Amino acid sequence: MPDLRFYNTLARQVEPFAPLEPGKVRMYHCGPTVYQRPHVGNYRAFLFADLLRRVLEQRGFQVTQVMNLTDVGHIQGDADAGEDKLEAEARKRRIDPWELTRRVAEQFFADLRALQVRPAHHYPRATDHIPEMVAMVEKLLQRGCAYQVGHNVYFDVSRFPEYGKLSGNRVQDLEAGARLEINPEKRHPADFALWKSDPAHIMKWATALGPNGFPGWHIECSAMSRKYLGETFDIHTGGEDNVFPHHECEIAQSEGATGKPFVKLWMHTKFLMVDGGKMAKSLGNVYTLDDIAARGFSPLDLRFFILRSHYRGSLNFTWEALAGAAEARKSLCDFKGRLAAEFNRIIGYDPNQWSPVVAATREAFQVAINDDLNASAALASVFELRNRYLRGQLEPSEFRWAEVFLAEVDDLFTFLEAGHSGPDFTSDQVERLLQERALARQQKDFKKSDAIRAQLASAGIVIEDSSSGTRWHRGGI
Ligand SMILES: [Zn+2]
């Protein structure tokens, strides 16, 4: 296998990968804030994490993967000021914030399933780890890295001279910058909140740090990554917008609390642009998987569209670009199907001897994907093999090897399935549709009840009617 190399944001260069413990990789991904359904842009970071894990696993590493769910109302920006978007959204929808996060998290997992993302080993939720966060804040207070003003606790950046090593933002530059608001409680404008107290908050806890408390955003990732992966672990990923302040602050907290290096390799995905710019509600271009399905695309088309480009390169989402990706994906599915249909033509296949042509293609693929996940170059070699086949330049004795290679490719990318065409429903949505169907049946509107059954079937949901009522399950699971 070719050497595995990744771009390390911390080192600002591509480096050979070597895990801390031979054969094992521990990695953490910043997950979603579950206050509204993730959009196509959010999925770039999550699909990248999935590809990274699969590449590591294909090389034989035993991977432990953790992705957090931010389900507590942290405050926007540098976690000190502004509106709590989770509680604001709950108010808008007139539901409890706990209920909101439950529903959005379930939707998120349904989306991940539709996108064929391999489940992480742990999805810790911030609200389940308040004691771990409080313990870390107390540790930082003991070590003199933090200070308390009333029931608020701030990290003292002057006590962590390496602050800025990830983002390149030096404290003295931040001081001059206008983007930090003036908070008279802080000793230095770049200090950030570890713990806040506010009786008006709905999601709040009474702890050793005081009443009505809730965590700053950054502390949750420091506390939860430590719990599941240890004080020092291999890889931490996130979107490029996480570099500062979020990851910079995580490093300060974790290294401040333990005195040990936090993470060896930091990897960040670039933003997904939409229509050449940023997504915005006002522009009506914040698309979810439902919008993708409504235009007749499979979630796997989106998966392929995102994963075929390099994670650090620019990627612009447009409907035309998605259609192009869907077409390209279809051509590879078609290639796979044709190879499978050729089974009776296969002659002279030697199971012990790779076809030189396919072996060279495989080598090119592996070199590219192991070179900082250069997916576009890797997939170019797959298309090259397909073209060779279409030109009649692949011998029947080589077809079986082409199939083996395609299976290896799909083990990483998973786009060679037709996938179910419909949306992926949450349990709540399924229950609601089943109620509608029961009502339609009562009213003898069988056209409607059949339509609902078909709608659920297109999402892979199987329903069974019996005398004791209707039961359902997800097909194949
Ligand atoms: Zn995080």
What is the compact description of this entry?
With 477 residues, this protein is of the alpha/beta class.
What does the model show?
It is a single chain. By secondary structure, the protein is an alpha/beta fold. The protein has three domains: 5-269, HUPs (Rossmann fold, 3-Layer(aba) Sandwich); 281-413, Orthogonal Bundle (Isoleucyl-tRNA Synthetase, Domain 1); 427-474. The chain contains 15 helices and 15 strands. It has helices at 42-58, 85-93, 97-114, 130-142, 171-176, 217-229, 243-258, 289-294, 299-307, 319-341, 356-370, 375-390, 396-413, 427-442, 446-458; strands at residues 5-8, 13-16, 24-29, 62-67, 146-149, 152-155, 192-197, 205-207, 210-215, 233-239, 263-269, 272-274, 315-317, 461-466, 469-474. The chain has a five-stranded antiparallel β-sheet. The protein has a four-stranded parallel β-sheet with strand order 4-3-10-11, with helices on both faces. Strand 8 and strand 9 (210-215) form a beta hairpin. Helix 11 (356-370) packs parallel to helix 13. The chain is globular, with a radius of gyration of 25 Å. Residues 76-80 have low confidence and may be disordered. The structure holds zinc ion. The site of zinc ion (ZN) has 3 residues, from loops.
Summary keywords:
15 helices; Rossmann fold; Isoleucyl-tRNA Synthetase, Domain 1; binds zinc ion; 477 residues; 3 domains; 5-stranded antiparallel β-sheet; 4-stranded parallel β-sheet
